[in-house]
């Protein structure tokens, strides 16, 4: 990844559960945060908010002062496109974030702003300027982001299909956002990228978590409400093998069961007109989670609390 | 190894509107010949349109349409490819594939010819997923599946009513875009089929389209266009907005993406501008209308949905232009004609 990443500033956050020192290749301009940094900044909030495992990245988001953030899991390397050329995922994410999104009407030629494409006949002209993009969700070649049951049933299923498109996920349509390869506009939606949904037996491989799915739906609700776009498609990264899906199956399918309640909730949640920032939106979502999902499972009640704590932390850190 | 029989050979009709000729069928012969064609001849009925040898077909010109429908033939457009919907009405098959006569066989990136009909059939025969977006597109395609986080209760999907294909070479642009970008060609092969989410409208192009007649046929009316009408090139758009509202209401799916065909002819953008001109302004009222249209719980069949929609069209869009009052009326006439030609089969 060196040639692609080395032009940018890196924020590396070491999982507080990961003992020992990280060996980092030279030549990168970076900040490294470890458990002690997290404890120092987060202080008393550390009871409610856990930055363990995949959630350690949210500390990085909290610390960043940049407008755009790109986050890629550490088991991903650059992929190649259908011509065999290496894909610069960063450039593509930047293109996605800096090009308008079109959530209010579906364009059948996908991204109308990319070269060689445009809005098709029948696309209303008043909707052609688009809106700002808040979140860009990339995809994965080789090991796609499947859950443990799917992975166990089809261990040989590799994603080899390169779909040459970026598209805006329409307004009010929910999607499963995978944290493996994403980017976002920190100024517009930063507060909504939050570590709030922790399974009781959350593990260290992606198919033992659904924290990003929860976060992604929060971000989508926020974007829909604030009239921002969420895009999905390019860029691809190459995701490598790790872990044993069948082993993960032996744990409870807690995440899978909880999704059945989570999805209908996010599909129906509506925010008030007075919620005009991402922070406002998150607080309202948290309140709605507490009221509607809290009674169903303590995980949800805890998430609602964590979301409120997170916004307080976010504001505190930003004020300093 | 014996070749498999063409899928849905006796259950699918290919509907082709034409005013010129059917030379394009030669290129499609390997893929289309096993199927029955319904040719709808637009324009001068005294002209003879030659159908290439070896195809099994029925052909209808304007005289035939007038004879079969009587006074109800007023709902079928003249001098516009919208007349193709007559073909949907007279078909006795479950599935329809419709294609324009300037659309040819495209090649995929490996150089192999694309059997568009076969792909449409695959799209129609496997479920859609309108209730939650799958980031890996169609989860039922070989080599794909539902991604992590996709609720298991939604993985069965819903029946697919419509399969909307795309076009390489000349893209389906409106007149203003054609005027600004006369040389733009679509060379991007996007290897995906995806379900258009519930609650989202799209511009449906009739150039390369397939649907399940049993599920959605009566809503596939292509409106009043062409001769004597103030608007053209909005026939498929109109049908697309109607079918999407109805599919969303009835829990049916609409897919878009593959297959690609090769669109060879760019129509004259100045002629197009004259036809589309009013539509470009009316669109701004029409879209919010469809986006907010709701149908009652009692509308449980396509016909009931469509009639309910036609009343709303008259009531809400009638204020925009008297054309919509005429159109609402034609929508009713269409349903009457459909029901007469397609009496409900006893279960």
Write a short abstract of this structure.
The complex is a heterodimer of chains A (320) and B (347). With 320 residues, chain A is α/β, with parallel strands linked by helices. Chain A is 36% helix and 15% strand.
Roughly how much helix do the residues of chain B carry, as a percent range?
Answer: 25-40%
Q: What is the element string of chain A, with H for helices and E for strands? A: HEEHHEEHEHEEHHEHHHH
| Low-confidence region ranges of chain B | none
Strand content of chain B: 15-25%
- Mean residue pLDDT of chain B: 96
Backbone shape of chain A: globular
Low-pLDDT sequence parts of chain A: none
Which term fits the overall shape of chain B?
A: globular
* Alpha-carbon distance between the two ends of chain B: 39 Å
The largest sheet of chain B is: 9 strands, mixed
How large, in whole angstroms, is the Cα Rg of chain B? 19 Å
Gyration radius of chain A, to the nearest Å? 19 Å
Terminal CA distance of chain A: 33 Å
- What structural class is derived from the secondary structure elements of chain A? alpha/beta
Using DSSP, what is the number of strands of chain B? 9
Which chain pair shows the most residues in contact? A-B, 56 and 57 residues
**Mean pLDDT rating of chain A:** 91
Oligomer state of the chains in this structure: heterodimer
Contiguous helical run count of chain A:
11
How many domains of chain A? The number is: 1
The amount of beta strand of chain A, in percent, is 5-15%
Main location (chain A): Golgi
Family (chain A): Belongs to the RGP family.
Organism (chain A): Rehmannia glutinosa (Chinese foxglove)
Pfam families (chain A): RGP
What does this structure look like?
- Chain B: This is UDP-arabinopyranose mutase.
- Chain B: Belongs to the RGP family.
- Chain B: Keywords: Cell wall biogenesis/degradation, Glycoprotein, Golgi apparatus, Isomerase.
- Chain B: Probable UDP-L-arabinose mutase involved in the biosynthesis of cell wall non-cellulosic polysaccharides.
- Chain B: Its EC number is 5.4.99.30.
- The complex is a heterodimer of chains A (320) and B (347).
- Chain A has eleven helices and eight strands.
- Chain A is of the alpha/beta class.
- Chain A has one domain (2-319).
- In chain A, helix 7 runs parallel beside helix 9 (254-268), helix 7 crosses helix 10 (278-293) and helix 10 (278-293) runs antiparallel to helix 11.
- In chain B, strands 1, 2, 3, 4, 5, 6, 7, 8 and 9 form a nine-stranded mixed beta sheet that branches.
- The mean pLDDT of chain B is 96.
- In chain B, helix 9 runs antiparallel to helix 10.
- Chain B has helices at 25-32, 62-69, 85-90, 116-125, 175-180, 213-216, 235-250, 269-292, 302-317, 323-341, and strands at residues 12-18, 36-41, 56-60, 95-99, 103-104, 160-169, 193-195, 208-212, 253-263.
- In chain B, strand 1, helix 1 and strand 2 form a beta-alpha-beta unit.
- Chain B is α/β, with parallel strands linked by helices and 347 residues long.
- Chain B is 34% helix and 16% strand.
- Chain B is globular, with a radius of gyration of 19 Å.
- Chains A and B meet through helix 7 and helix 9 of A and helix 7 and helix 8 of B.
């Amino acid at each position: 990844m060196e040639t692609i990443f080395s032009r940018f500033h890196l924020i590396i956050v070491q999982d507080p559960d990961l003992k020992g020192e990280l060996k980092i290749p030279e030549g990168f301009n970076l900040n490294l945060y470890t458990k002690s940094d997290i404890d120092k900044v987060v202080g008393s909030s550390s009871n409610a908010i856990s930055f363990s495992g995949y959630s350690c990245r949210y500390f990085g988001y909290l610390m960043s002062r940049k407008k755009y953030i790109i986050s890629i899991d550490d088991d991903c390397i650059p992929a190649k496109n259908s011509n065999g050329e290496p894909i610069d995922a960063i450039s593509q994410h930047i293109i996605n974030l800096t090009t308008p999104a079109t959530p209010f009407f579906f364009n059948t030629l996908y991204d109308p702003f990319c070269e060689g494409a445009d809005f098709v006949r029948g696309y209303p002209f008043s909707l052609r300027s688009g809106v700002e993009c808040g979140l860009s969700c990339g995809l994965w070649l080789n090991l796609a982001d499947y859950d443990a049951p799917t992975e166990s049933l089809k261990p040989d299923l590799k994603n080899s299909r390169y779909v040459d498109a970026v598209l805006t996920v329409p307004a009010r349509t929910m999607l499963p956002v995978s944290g493996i390869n994403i980017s976002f506009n920190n100024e517009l939606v930063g507060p909504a990228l939050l570590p709030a949904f922790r399974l009781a037996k959350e593990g260290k491989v992606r198919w033992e978590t659904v924290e990003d799915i929860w976060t992604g739906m929060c971000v989508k609700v926020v974007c829909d409400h604030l009239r921002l776009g969420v895009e999905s498609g390019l860029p691809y990264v190459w995701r490598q093998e790790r872990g044993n899906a069948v082993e993960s199956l032996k744990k409870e399918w807690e995440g899978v069961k909880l999704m059945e309640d989570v999805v209908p909730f996010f599909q129906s949640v509506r925010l008030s007109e007075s919620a005009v920032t991402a922070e406002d939106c998150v607080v309202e979502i948290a309140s709605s989670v507490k009221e509607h999902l809290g009674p169903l499972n303590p995980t949800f009640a805890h998430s609602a609390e964590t979301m409120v704590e997170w916004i307080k932390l976010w504001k505190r850190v930003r004020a300093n | 190894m014996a070749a498999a029989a063409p899928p849905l050979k006796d259950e699918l009709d290919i509907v082709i509107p034409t005013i010129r000729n059917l030379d394009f069928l030669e290129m499609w012969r390997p893929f289309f010949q096993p199927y029955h064609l319904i040719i709808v001849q637009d324009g001068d009925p005294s002209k003879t349109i030659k159908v290439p040898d070896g195809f099994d077909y029925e052909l209808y010109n304007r005289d035939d349409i007038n004879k079969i429908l009587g006074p109800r033939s007023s709902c079928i457009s003249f001098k516009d490819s919208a007349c193709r919907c007559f073909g949907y009405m007279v078909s006795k098959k479950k599935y329809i594939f419709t294609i324009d006569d300037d659309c040819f066989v495209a090649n995929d990136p490996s150089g192999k010819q694309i059997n568009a009909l076969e792909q449409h059939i695959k799209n129609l025969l496997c479920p859609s997923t309108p209730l939650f977006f799958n980031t890996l597109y169609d989860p039922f395609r070989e080599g794909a599946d539902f991604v992590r986080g996709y609720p298991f209760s939604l993985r069965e999907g819903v029946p697919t009513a419509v399969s909307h294909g795309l076009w390489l070479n000349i893209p389906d642009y409106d007149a203003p875009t054609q005027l600004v970008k006369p040389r733009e060609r679509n060379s991007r092969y996007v290897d995906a089929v995806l379900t258009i989410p519930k609650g989202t409208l799209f511009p449906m192009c009739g150039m390369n389209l397939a649907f399940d007649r049993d599920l959605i046929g009566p809503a596939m009316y292509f409106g009043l266009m062409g001769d004597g009408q103030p608007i053209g090139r909005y026939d498929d758009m109109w049908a697309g907005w109607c079918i999407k509202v109805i599919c969303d209401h009835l829990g049916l799916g609409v897919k878009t993406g593959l297959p690609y065909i090769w669109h060879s002819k760019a129509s004259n953008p100045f002629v197009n501008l004259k036809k589309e001109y009013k539509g470009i302004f009316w669109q701004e009222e029409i879209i919010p209308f469809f986006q907010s249209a709701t149908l009652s719980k009692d509308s449980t069949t396509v016909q009931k949905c469509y009639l309910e929609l036609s009343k709303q069209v008259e009531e809400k869009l009638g204020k925009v232009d008297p054309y919509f009052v005429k159109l609402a009326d034609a929508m009713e006439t269409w349903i009457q004609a459909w029901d007469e030609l397609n009496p409900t089969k006893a279960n």
